[in-house]
Amino acid sequence: MYAQGATAAIMIQENWDDSVQTDVIHLLQKLIPSGVWLHDRQDGNGDAHLKAGLIGPSETIPVVKGEMGLSTWQNIFFCELDGPRSNRRVVVTIISTE
């Protein structure tokens, strides 16, 4: 799966409770603060581009017996790093080896 957009990303992470999601947001804010990047002179979202590059736009998930091969606690997260946006797309490609 692939997130279209230079400031969007896809992440697989624990989904047991919201604390991991909140921790990820806080970590990204500490590592990559807003308002201090050269690209901010263009459109004010330099941090969103850097965060998207760090996380990455895609994930590969195996299909096992017709189901996504995620563990019990894993889930897929779409990371909107410059929004909210009204129109984002995720492209899903399924490749069969059979």
Number of helices: 3
Whole-number tally of structural domains: 1
CATH class: Mainly Beta
Annotated CATH architecture: Sandwich
Identify the strand order in the major beta sheet: 1-6
Question: How much strand?
Answer: 15-25%
**Content-based structural category:** alpha+beta
Under CATH, the homologous superfamily reads: YjbQ-like
Helix content: 25-40%
Q: What do the pLDDT scores average to?
A: 93
At CATH level 3, the topology is: Jelly Rolls
Quaternary structure annotation:
single chain
The major sheet is characterized as: 2 strands, antiparallel
Note poorly predicted spans: none
Round the Cα radius of gyration to an integer and report it.
15 Å
Number of strands: 6
What is the overall shape? Answer: globular
How far apart lie the N and C ends? 20 Å
H-E string: EEHHHEEEE
Give the helix/strand layout:
Elements: E1 2-4, E2 8-14, H1 19-31, H2 40-43, H3 46-55, E3 63-64, E4 67-68, E5 74-80, E6 89-91
Antiparallel strand pairs: 1-6, 2-5, 3-4
Brief characterization of the structure:
The protein has 98 residues and is α+β, with helices and mostly antiparallel strands.
Structure report:
The protein has 98 residues and is an alpha+beta fold. It has a single domain (2-91), classed as Sandwich (Jelly Rolls), CATH 2.60.120. Helices cover 28% and strands 24% of the residues. It is built from three helices and six strands, in the order ββαααββββ. A two-stranded antiparallel ribbon has the order 1-6. Strands 2-5 form a two-stranded antiparallel sheet. A two-stranded antiparallel sheet has the order 3-4. Strand 3 and strand 4 form a beta hairpin. The mean pLDDT is 93.
